[in-house]
Amino acid sequence: MSEQLNRSGRGVYVQGNDIDTDRIIPARFLKCVTFDELGPALFYDERFDSDDLPKGHILDNPAHRGASVLVTDANFGCGSSREHAPQALQKFGIEVIIAESFAEIFHGNCTTLGMPCLVMPAEQRRALAGLVQQNPDAEFLIDIEQCTLIFANQSFAFGMKESAREAFLTGRFDPLNELLLGQEAIRSVAEKLGYAETV
Amino acid sequence: MGKNLYQKVWSDHLVGTLENGQFQVFVALHLIHEVTSPQAFGMLKDKGLGVAYPKRTFATVDHIIPTDDQSRPFSDPMAERMMEVLSEATETHGIEFFQPNTGSQGIVHVVGPELGLTQPGMTICCGDSHTSTHGAFGCIALGIGTSQVRDVLASQTLAMDPLKVRRIEVTGELASGVTAKDVTLHIIRTLGVNGGVGYAYEYAGPVIDAMSMEERMTVCNMSIEGGARCGYINPDATTFEFLRGRERVPSGADFDAAVARWGSYASDVDAEYDDVVVIDGGAIEPTVTWGVTPGQAISINERIPDPALAAGLDQELMEDALRYMQLDSEAPIAGTKIDVAFIGSCTNGRLSDFKAVAEAIKGHQVANHVRAIAVPGSEKVDADAKALGLDHIFREAGFEWRKPGCSMCLAMNPDKLVGDEICASSSNRNFMGRQGSSTGRTLLMSPIMVAAAAVQGQVADARVVFDLKEVG
Q1: B5-276 falls under which CATH superfamily?
Q2: What is the ipTM of this complex?
Q3: Does domain A3-173 bear CATH number 3.20.19.10?
Q4: Is A93 left (phi over 0), alpha (psi -120 to 50) or beta?
């Protein structure tokens, strides 16, 4: 059984619809040639003022420190395709994101990095967010195979894009090795389209 | 039953099926820039991989490049470092790099089409969400993350789920003074910033048919702001004429053969769609955003909406937006004082944008309190504009005329808002902090509306300011 089948950890609720990737990681932090240093810059302008002093953001609340399951609202990760956003979340310590919906490029980036994006209908997601706020010490138990999670003694069903669920079940969320297996098929498509001479 | 363009391009580029049920798709054209791609070369190195099809990848530098002094090294050491890493990587792997001062550098989504690299029926990828721009040529053009840039470099393919297709028909005729930017802002306002999730948008109808290629690029550019994975327009005579004679486009008999092939990708008349939406083009007015998402937009003569009339989280989102923007509900958007005017970006930084504004601002002056900058989208746009004397017209009106780059669209270079300055901007995103200050404010609008705001010192109806009547 792959360890990807189950996830656990404490939760934190970051409120807001349409949280864009500029908010998750402001553009000035994109000046880098590796992703290594991005963790502390997560949600920087929401967490710190112009003098770099903390503004009391929920992610800096001691009760939620170390949380690895991020619960948020709808259309999370919209805007820029910057992989810096999921990289910053992951390096900050987030391992799973639960929302009503995700922007697609962001969703794809998270999946490739091994961060499951779980989708829940508004009502249940709201209830879960409330529980997370009230139970900062409670642990999530997430079963990706069954698409169910338990938190604070309550059980919730969630949805996942089927290809992403399958990728986590097999542990093959990074497709590169499989893409490279298709060399001959790739070459024949390239030839058919007239790109063979450019190899 | 016929096929739509998306289905034809998809099946032509399909390599196979992956174990998780996703599809492996060949990428005909891969574009890279200095912000999202250097890390991918690092990933390749870690895995001991090379670039599979280096002649199908092209690089440019746009996000971090200064628009005033471009001499090397750049004043910002990290920007210089990013430039160096991209230079080294492209040289090592034999990838063509459109360096500054070669006549070919510019914003990646301006450069691809103007060189003719972007051609109908292609799958195109770039580590940049506004890759959807290239859909104007009848391409399936996808913004991707850095790990996928790595995948494309290593294999020239991408793992992907299929998309649904929504046809958006814009009927009628645009009124004078109403532009492609207003059309796209209107569509996003109507369908929502996440209305397009799961979809490719096919833009069609008489308004789209009548548009120039540059206008079509503006529309497709902002597909991503409506949540769509990509947007496209079926190739037609306008597309082919735009491409004729471009540097990387075949000529003579080869061009005629290419046109025949390109045309075959257009959606069949009996094609099926997952959804069809009809928008009355004649009803679209100059449109301006008031909030912090591109969907929070109203026409120039409307008032800012009252959050009390919205439900639940939308209400909170509107209240947050108004607080951030320091604007009042039910106030007219016209008359909102501005500090900065920005004309440029991959949305509206092309020659026709500067031409339209130059015609309008002759004899006008930018208001004293407004800092106004015009940033051409590429070195070619810059050169063409200068050949027409447009830079003089802009300077005489009080604009600064800068060197090409992304500039104040996302302010990764020195061009930034200061404090809570408010900017009338021809760019694509009004997100909090987008233009380089964590309290800076952005009002998205068309270039001509930015010019009107610059001249009046406040948001104003360009049709009135510039007396635009019967001209399109």
Answers
A1: Aconitase, domain 3 (3.30.499.10)
A2: 0.95
A3: yes
A4: left
